[in-house]
Amino acid sequence: MIINEPLYPDICMLPWEKALFQTRSVKRLKYLAHYGAGSLVSPVTHSRFEHTVGVWKLTAWFFHEDRALRAAAILHDIGHLPFSHAVERTLGYNHHELTKKLIQSEEICTILRDNKIRVEDVVACLNQENGLTGTRDIIGLDHVDSFFRDMYIMGGLDRLPKEVLPFMKCTKAGVEADETTCSFIMDCMVNDHQLFLSPLLLAADQLLAKAVHRYCETYNDASIHLLTDDELLSVLKQSQIKEVEELLDVLLYRTETLSFSETLTGKGLLLNVKKIYNKAPLYNGKSYVETKDGAEKIRQLHQLEQTYSAEWT
Questions:
Q1: CA distance linking residue 261 with residue 64, whole number of Å
Q2: Per-residue pLDDT of the chain (313 residues; tens, 9 = 90+)
Q3: β partners of residue 269
Q4: Within 10 Å of residue 68's Cβ, how many Cβ atoms?
Q5: Boundaries of every domain in the chain
Q6: Contact, 243 vs 216, CB < 8 A?
Q7: Three-state DSSP string of 66-83
Q8: What Cα–Cα distance (Å) separates residue 170 from each residue in 43, 140, 174, 283?
């Protein structure tokens, strides 16, 4: 497998890192859309594998000597379900717990153990506040890559991320940058939210979630959380459940028939904004939200907290 991506400078991959990238759990990420069901209705179609490569590059750039954190960057998403969060909520799984379980699998444990990296240290990196995961108020490298990458695919960047890295720092306290770069990061965050919290993308997640829920009411499929995106769609298409077939038909082929309203009718789908990610970089030792520009961008984010109803013909 060729392991590279265009957003950041090349990083020398250590032999044990290459071995982790070749594991079944990490390779599976190539078949999981980073944007969930939104990948079916938008141009943002990159996989969680590309995101993982990006997060690993950033982690290796800022924490060159921290082998446990570099391993955690490679493994941080391996517990994701097909189409990520929409299906996770529907099935009642926690991808963080699934990630921990998979890190403790024999294939991954053997690579870590042979290279004198403690499994416990890697798991701790994902459970603690640090530069990779972020802290209570400060953004970490995981989400920085998400916002950069989504906007890159959308054509929404006026600067490449590799051009702003020299103006960024990252410590255990999270990402820190100069004023211009902080504003750039926050712009990416706001623009990304405006897309994935738009009624169409909310509806895509809900249509898929409802189809999966209806399928699971009929079939006791204990392996569904281990499927890839394509495998899940195949299972749903073959379910022989009329409601599931209709939901998939709308999602895959008839989204133009969807209509949205902020007036809740009690019919169709109820679309709720579940979460706003409102962390920020550090600027001069304080959260960027304490600046006028940062506060305005947080205000723009919270304006997206709306509820819609969706119907289709």
A1: 49
A2: 778 899 999 999 999 999 999 999 999 999 999 999 999 999 999 999 999 999 999 999 999 999 999 999 999 999 999 998 878 888 888 999 999 999 999 999 999 999 999 999 999 999 999 999 999 999 999 999 999 999 999 998 989 999 999 999 999 999 999 999 999 999 999 999 999 999 999 999 999 999 999 999 999 877 888 999 999 999 999 999 999 999 999 999 999 999 999 988 778 899 988 789 989 999 999 999 999 999 999 999 999 999 999 999 9
A3: 310
A4: 18
A5: 15-181
A6: no
A7: CHHHHHHHHHCCCCCCCC
A8: 30, 8, 5, 12
Length of the chain: 313
Tokens representing 35 are 């944007």
Walk across the sheet containing 282-283 and list its strands. 168-171, 174-177, 282-283, 286-287
What CATH homologous superfamily does 15-181 map to? Hypothetical protein af1432 (1.10.3210.10)
Task: Report the amino acid identity of residue 296.
Answer: E
Nearest-Å Rg of the Cα atoms of the chain is 20
- Of 221, 199, 90, 77, nearest in space to 143 by CA: 77
